[in-house]
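TASK: fixed-backbone design
INPUT:
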């Protein structure tokens, strides 16, 4: 499932291509056809993200998109290619097109319904006004593991399996520590690191988490070869040696996702 940086990048992509201009809205697949007809010809006022949720504002209404496991977006210059039957939502102007396929959610919602979605989500490191104290209030009294808490979108929005594993490694924190045992200074450092890492994710449109001194060039090691791209410390590196201490990276199931960590470096 795409992590928060991808959704914020999608909001940025929509803003650059469509904001402030009328758009043609259609649903070649048909499942969003009635709503598309209501929106067709309106201006896209704003595109924004909160965690893994994308919101497109057109007049008083909002298109709410959640990609889920299988949703994908495609963009391109006009003229648009013939739409296939798998396109749930197409936006089109004289210069650009955007096609949405396979999302878990593509729904027309009101401003009140949008607010209800925001209210149930935790703070997002990529939303400048979001308050990490809201997350800390729940983490600091929780008997759930830190690794599971970071994946709970009601506590921290936008963090997925990669950022979860990598930020815990970068701060040497055992993923099985309980939230109540995390120190406030550690939480503040985790949050600030997520802000920096995820902003870079938006800029580069991929996840890179290794520090400059640990890049392949700096260490004289082969670069990562993975469909997800980006240089990482532990994610999907099970049984391989840690870049820092050479301990074998471990993996286990936690909160229905594969957790990756280094038992040599993550001891705090």
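OUTPUT:
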């Amino acid at each position: 499932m795409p992590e928060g940086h991808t959704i914020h990048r999608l909001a940025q992509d929509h803003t650059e291509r469509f904001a402030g201009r009328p758009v043609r809205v259609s649903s070649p697949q048909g499942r969003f056809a009635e709503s598309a007809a209501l929106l067709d010809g309106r201006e896209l006022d704003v595109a924004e993200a909160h965690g893994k949720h994308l919101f497109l504002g057109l007049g008083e209404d909002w298109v709410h998109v959640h990609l889920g496991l299988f949703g994908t977006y495609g963009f391109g210059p006009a003229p648009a290619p013939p739409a296939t039957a798998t396109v749930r939502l197409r936006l089109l102007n004289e210069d650009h097109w955007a096609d949405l396929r396979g999302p878990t959610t593509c729904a027309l919602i009101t401003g009140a319904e949008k607010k209800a979605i925001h209210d149930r989500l935790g703070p997002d490191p990529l939303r400048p006004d979001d308050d990490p104290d809201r997350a800390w209030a729940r983490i600091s009294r929780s008997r759930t593991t830190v690794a599971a808490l970071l994946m709970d979108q009601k506590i921290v929005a936008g963090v997925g399996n990669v950022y979860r594993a990598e930020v815990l490694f970068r701060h040497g924190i055992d993923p099985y520590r309980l939230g109540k045992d995390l120190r406030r200074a550690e939480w503040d450092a985790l949050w600030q690191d997520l802000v920096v890492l995820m902003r870079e994710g938006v800029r580069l449109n991929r996840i890179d988490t290794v520090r400059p001194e640990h890049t392949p060039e700096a260490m004289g090691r082969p670069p990562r070869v993975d469909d997800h791209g980006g240089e990482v410390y532990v994610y999907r590196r099970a049984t391989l040696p840690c870049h820092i201490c050479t301990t074998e990276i471990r993996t286990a199931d936690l909160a229905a996702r594969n957790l990756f960590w280094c038992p040599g470096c993550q001891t705090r």
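COMMENT: The longest helix spans residues 184-204.
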